[in-house]
């Protein structure tokens, strides 16, 4: 498609999505008629082309489309008030579907205003169409798999007839069966030959497909001629029907594997898009109304209740909440959101209720940005495919030249060195020339080149490392810089208590009961340490013996902690500000905070019961891994969504320079740093495990994901470590 567009005047390539199989181009109607361009591209490529006329040149980054269904289509005069296009009009009914284009800027027309203005026409928002590309790729996989299976099924009998020592092997009857089977294979592979004919006729640009077609067709033609001479009683050479079958089968097998890879990648992208909530609770005129999140506009107020996902990016106007941002940042510690705090789509409100003012629409929020970034990186295609096509253009002529030289050399050798007759010399020379053309088929050449990398991939599997392609194995050795995600990759990914004050059994009983009402990661870590410590000594009073609760009026305070009442006295457990210890500069609290620990304190009135210091600890042998990388001349970096001071402290602990430690990053910001490292240092490898790492993984030259991480991360990575221990795998 790109080659077809390149030869046309007045046509500019806008985007080429290898993943979905969609190419967009812009045509200047003053230079070339768009309809003529569409017909030429269809003939040259065999692909479907649709011509869409637009009077504007808005970038896709500033506008978005929404499709509405109308029971009755308005007049053209009514629709001219909007930037829209009628997509389908029912043949019998008066209704149809219309695409409306909206601007992503404040003060622009909102989707809800369109619904209100056209209510009399029975307008409604169409469901999200997320499966049309998946269906197309699934169809491609099915067709290619069927052709591969059919070709293999037809090739096996030919191999048996040629290679097995059957009675009357090579007889005319057997050869007739071989001709029939080979012809069926040729018919089955007709789409490949049709594409090659179009490429040469319209574009005069041979590629790998043309080279494969020429090699297999010449092999078939020679075999048919050899068979015809055998039938006439003048055999001169054995036909190569088995070679034709093997080549076609291997070519289609490679195409099928490529399509399956596309299928897995596009499904992974849609799984990422599923993080986007479908509905939002719109607060308008004192009423709370559920609406489709696509209808939400700038400055709208949305209510997010406890346990709900935040539908789009915005700023908190009212309330406070603990928000789990692990889907975006990978960090297990919830973030406190109060008035003025920014919130992001796809994150979850754990405790509390907040009202937010919309700052980004669903088409441009954090989830959409991640999907667009991953799609752009995944859809760019492999540069090796373009290189292979360029080499194929030269290789075709090289193969034809080599075959001609082979013919002349063996003709001379046969006639003047071996003293064959002219007819025998010609037949012998033709046989060698055909052999050269068969060998020049890119399929066996590709297999031969892949053998060393296949051995490396097998060795990697033995050590728990899966290279998803030979390209990944080859590129990994060029790494100049390695960027790590922190949480779950270099660290354990779970908060652990590393420092605490000694507590009496009754105090442990109170703390255990206090934190039991919360699922906050800090509360869970404190509960674990209490249970573990008491299981090794003596049981906590009343925990193993099921006695009545001593606490009453337990309440979770978002952004603070937990409070309850014990014998008429208020007891609090939470951060330093919530417990009031920040005002008194408690020495233990200050010590823990200075060490970048998460503090959980328990106080009863003015008395301090216990103070815990928590941290996400580094995995064993991480410092050794960093030391080995730096000794080899590879720079190391850590990119994390955790707060910057904590990331810098972690970097110092494992031996990564503080200047290479970056905290407080969103997924797209991680990708930006990876992109900058590529420009500054060359080949960059990124190692991550979460959905939030998928953008950086696709941006990196080599991407490594952990097998225990998110499916999205593994789908975006070129290398997968089976397990979660990066240092252990690196030492094997």
Could you describe the 3D structure shown?
- The longest helix has 35 residues.
- The chain has 732 residues and is α+β, with helices and mostly antiparallel strands.
- The protein starts with a helix and ends with a helix.
- A hairpin with a 2-residue loop joins strand 7 and strand 8.
Compact overview of the structure:
The chain is of the alpha+beta class. It has 26 helices and 28 strands.
Which tags fit this structure?
732 residues, alpha+beta, Alpha-Beta Plaits, 6 domains, seven-stranded mixed beta sheet, six-stranded antiparallel beta sheet, 28 strands, copper ion binding, P-type divalent copper transporter activity, ATP hydrolysis activity, P_typ_ATPase
Strand-helix topology:
Elements: H1 2-6, E1 11-17, E2 22-27, H2 34-45, E3 63-70, H3 76-79, E4 84-89, E5 96-103, H4 111-117, E6 123-125, H5 132-163, H6 172-188, H7 190-203, H8 208-231, H9 241-273, E7 279-284, E8 287-292, E9 301-304, E10 314-319, E11 321-324, H10 326-329, E12 335-337, E13 342-343, E14 348-351, E15 354-358, H11 366-379, H12 383-417, H13 422-439, H14 442-462, E16 465-467, H15 470-476, E17 481-485, H16 486-490, E18 491-500, H17 505-515, H18 521-536, E19 552-557, E20 561-566, E21 569-574, H19 576-579, H20 587-594, E22 598-604, E23 607-618, H21 622-631, E24 635-639, H22 644-654, E25 661-662, H23 667-681, E26 684-688, H24 694-699, E27 702-706, H25 711-716, E28 719-721, H26 726-730
Parallel strand pairs: 17-24, 17-26, 24-25, 26-27, 27-28
Antiparallel strand pairs: 1-2, 3-5, 3-6, 4-5, 7-8, 7-9, 9-15, 10-13, 10-15, 11-12, 11-14, 16-28, 18-23, 19-20, 20-21, 21-22, 22-23
């Amino acid at each position: 498609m790109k080659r077809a567009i390149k030869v046309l005047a007045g046509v500019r390539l806008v985007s080429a999505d290898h993943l979905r199989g969609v190419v967009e181009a812009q045509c200047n109607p003053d230079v070339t008629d768009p309809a003529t361009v569409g017909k030429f591209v269809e003939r040259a490529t065999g692909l479907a082309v649709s011509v869409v006329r637009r009077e504007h040149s808005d970038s896709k980054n500033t506008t978005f489309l929404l499709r509405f269904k109308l029971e009755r289509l308005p007049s053209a005069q009514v629709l001219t008030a909007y930037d829209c296009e009628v997509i389908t009009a029912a043949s019998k009914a008066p209704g149809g579907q219309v695409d409306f284009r909206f601007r992503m800027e404040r003060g622009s027309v909102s989707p809800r205003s369109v619904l209100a203005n056209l209510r009399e026409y029975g307008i409604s928002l169409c469901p999200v169409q997320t499966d049309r590309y998946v269906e197309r790729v699934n169809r491609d996989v099915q067709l290619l798999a069927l052709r591969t299976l059919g070709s293999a099924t037809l090739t096996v009998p030919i191999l048996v007839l040629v290679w097995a020592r059957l009675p009357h092997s090579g007889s005319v009857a057997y050869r007739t069966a071989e001709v029939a089977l080979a012809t069926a294979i040729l018919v089955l592979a007709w789409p490949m030959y049709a594409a090659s004919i179009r490429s040469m006729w319209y574009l005069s640009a041979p590629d790998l497909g043309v080279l494969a077609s020429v090699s297999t067709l010449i092999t078939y033609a020679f075999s048919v001629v050899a068979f015809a001479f055998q039938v006439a009683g003048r055999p001169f050479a054995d036909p190569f029907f088995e070679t034709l079958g093997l080549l076609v089968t291997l070519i289609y097998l490679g195409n099928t594997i490529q399509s399956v890879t596309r299928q897995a990648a596009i499904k992974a992208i849609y799984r990422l898009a599923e993080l986007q909530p479908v509905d939002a609770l719109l607060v308008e005129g004192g009423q709370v109304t559920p609406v489709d999140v696509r209808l939400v506009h700038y400055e709208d107020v949305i209510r997010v209740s406890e346990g709900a996902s935040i539908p789009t990016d915005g700023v908190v106007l009212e309330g406070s909440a603990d928000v789990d941002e692990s889907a975006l940042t990978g960090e297990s510690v919830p973030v406190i959101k109060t008035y003025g705090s920014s919130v992001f789509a796809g994150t979850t409100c754990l405790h509390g209720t907040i009202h937010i003012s919309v700052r980004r629409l669903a088409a441009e929020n954090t989830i959409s940005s991640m999907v667009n970034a991953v799609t752009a990186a995944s859809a760019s295609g492999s540069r090796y495919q373009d290189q292979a096509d360029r080499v194929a253009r030269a290789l075709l002529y090289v193969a034809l030249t080599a075959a001609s030289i082979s013919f002349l050399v063996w003709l001379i050798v046969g006639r003047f060195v071996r003293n064959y007759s002219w007819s025998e010399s010609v037949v012998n020379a033709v046989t060698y020339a055909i052999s050269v053309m068969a060998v020049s088929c890119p399929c066996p050449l590709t297999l031969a080149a892949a053998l060393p990398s296949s051995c490396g991939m097998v060795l990697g599997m033995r050590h728990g490392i899966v290279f998803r392609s030979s390209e990944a194995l080859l590129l990994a050795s060029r790494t100049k810089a390695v960027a790590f995600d922190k949480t779950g990759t270099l660290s354990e990914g779970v908060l652990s208590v590393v420092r605490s004050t000694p507590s009496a059994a009754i105090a442990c009983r109170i703390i255990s009961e206090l934190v039991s009402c919360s699922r906050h990661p800090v509360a869970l870590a404190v509960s674990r340490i209490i249970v573990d410590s008491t299981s090794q000594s003596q049981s906590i009073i009343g925990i193993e013996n099921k006695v009545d609760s001593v606490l009453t009026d337990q309440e979770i305070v978002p952004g603070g902690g937990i409070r309850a009442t014990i014998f008429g006295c208020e007891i609090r457990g939470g951060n330093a500000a919530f417990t009031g210890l920040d005002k008194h500069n408690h020495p233990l609290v200050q010590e823990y905070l200075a060490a970048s620990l998460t503090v959980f304190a328990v106080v009863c009135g003015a008395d301090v019961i216990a103070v815990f210091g928590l941290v996400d600890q580094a995995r064993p042998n991480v410092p050794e891994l960093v030391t080995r990388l730096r000794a080899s001349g590879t720079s190391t970096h850590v990119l994390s969504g955790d707060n910057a001071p904590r990331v810098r402290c972690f970097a110092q602990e494992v031996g990564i320079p503080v200047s290479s430690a970056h905290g407080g990053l969103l997924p797209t910001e991680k990708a930006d740093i990876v992109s900058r490292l590529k420009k500054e240092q060359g080949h960059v490898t990124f190692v991550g495990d979460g959905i939030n790492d998928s953008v950086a993984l696709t941006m990196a030259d080599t991407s490594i994901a952990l097998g225990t991480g998110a499916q999205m991360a593994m789908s975006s990575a070129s290398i997968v470590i089976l397990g979660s221990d990066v240092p252990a795998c690196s030492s094997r």
